[in-house]
Amino acid sequence: MNTGMVRKIDELGRLVIPKEIRNSLHIKNGEDVSIFIKEDMIVLKKSEKMLSINDAIQKLIDSLKKITNDINNKYGKSTENIILFNELINTNQGTEIIYALRNTNQLANKINNEFEKNNLQMNKFYQQRLPGDTSKDYYYITRETNPSETIIINYDLDEYQDFINYANSVALALIDYLNTKKEKTYTVVKGDSLYSIAKKFNTTVNNLKNINNLSTNLLSIGQILKIK
What we know:
Blueprint: H1 19-24, E1 33-38, E2 41-46, H2 53-75, E3 82-89, E4 95-99, H3 106-117, E5 122-126, E6 129-130, E7 133-137, H4 140-143, E8 149-156, H5 160-182, E9 184-187, H6 194-200, H7 205-211, E10 224-227
Parallel strand pairs: 3-8, 4-5
Antiparallel strand pairs: 1-2, 4-8, 6-7, 9-10
Helix pairs in contact: 3-5, 6-7
């Protein structure tokens, strides 16, 4: 861009960059400017500040906190919520699934099974604890979305098509998991009978026996029955 401005270089070789240009490029007093040659031009460019490792980590933490707060503000905290947090990594060790300490491994296991069914590279699924307090989850987003069901998936990918295949597998596993959660169950307590349970849920004894594969009317305390 030709600004039409001309400046003289003083006896020490210094050049004043016009205030209008400094303002438009957001160059502040004391900031570094890179100087390099391109063909027959001397080019001045605002230097990009390199983040230290600590600054980069803090920036990532702040970003994760914002994502977590946005989720909680928009959807609230509920056992009905399922949160899938996706990350792309490149370790050549396979994709990993981390599920919260408060949750069972049922959803993580279903996702893992879909990956294996579709020949997608999978490392492991597990829970990770905070070193300073092992009663808490390691990841901020997992800790701070309690009691929602939170799953973190670290995809170890080389190509975009791989992500599509993984994403489809996750979707199928989630659908299967949600269908399973829709099933009502009842735990037998002292004094229960198939007749009293059927009456309680507005169904029939024969229906309860059919969906639970029962050949007799005998029940045991603690037995879990499917209710449809």
